[in-house]
Amino acid sequence: MLDWQLYVILDRAAAGARDLTAIARQAIAGGADVVQLRDKTASVQAVMAEARSLRVVTREAGIPFIVNDRPDVALAVDADGVHLGQDDGPLSLARQILGPGKLVGRSTHSVAQAAAALAQGADYIGFGPVFATPTKPGYRAIGTGEIGQVVSQAPCPVVVIGGIDLSTVDRVLHAGARCVAVLRAVTAAPDPESAARALKQRIMAATTSSSSATRSARVDS
User: Is residue 115 in a domain?
Assistant: First the structure.
């Protein structure tokens, strides 16, 4: 069972001229449990170079490395998996490309899409955007109301995403999220390590509180 709490997406557009590998090291030091490379505009060669460097960093840290959209790049650098959007083809094709033992995640934007991804055997699902975000300008914010339903029905991690930062993370956690994905909140932060650490501490505190409440309820019953 994947036990993730903080999923950090390293986005070239959000990072600007800063080195993604350096940001990755800082995010991992701050508590990132998994790192994804997202680069929508670079050439295949440039994405491959970034991916190879990030693969080294994540392997040293012992955490999963995911490539967004590109099973071919994930295969070439021996990434731990690939993350697919709704329009990025079937999960079965990505598995065929990557081979056994690799993770395939799917972005979902509704309860129905989440259920479909689970039925297709996704290793984890992204659920959002829960808040408006410039990263997904074509998608409406779906809010937090369905997080608990999706999390309770999923046998795999539900990575809640979209406009999450320190000002919004508590609302997401209160709604039932156990793992959150952040992009600008870490990638664009002046101090990625501190930003990641602050988010991880909030998530851990909420998870600990929830676990304690569950144990107490069982004892009382």
Answer: yes
Domain assignment of residue 1, yes or no? no
Is 107 among the residues known to form the active site?
Answer: yes
Task: Write down the catalytic residue from 102, 136, 200, 202.
Answer: 136
> Considering its fold, how many domains does the chain have in total?
1
In a domain, 42, yes or no: yes
C-alpha–C-alpha distance, residues 39 and 183, integer Å:
12
Q: Find the catalytic residue in 12, 25, 38, 200.
A: 38
- Catalytic residue list contains 38: yes
What average pLDDT is seen over the chain? Answer: 93
- Dihedral sign, CA of 69, 70, 71, 74? negative
Identified catalytic residue from 95, 102, 106, 107: 107
Does an H or E element contain 181, and which? strand 179-182
74 falls within a domain:
yes
Residue 136 annotated to the active site: yes
Q: What is the pLDDT of residues 117-160, one digit of tens each?
A: 999 999 999 999 999 888 777 778 999 999 999 999 999 999 99
Q: Output the pLDDT for position 30.
A: 98
Range of the domain at 208: 6-220
pLDDT, one tens digit per residue, over 177-192 is 999 999 999 999 999 9
Domain with residue 62: its CATH number is 3.20.20.70
Q: At what angle do helices 192-220 and 20-29 cross, to 10 degrees?
A: 40
As a whole number of angstroms, the distance between CA 30 and CA 186 comes to 10
The model carries a pTM of 0.93
pLDDT score at 134: 82
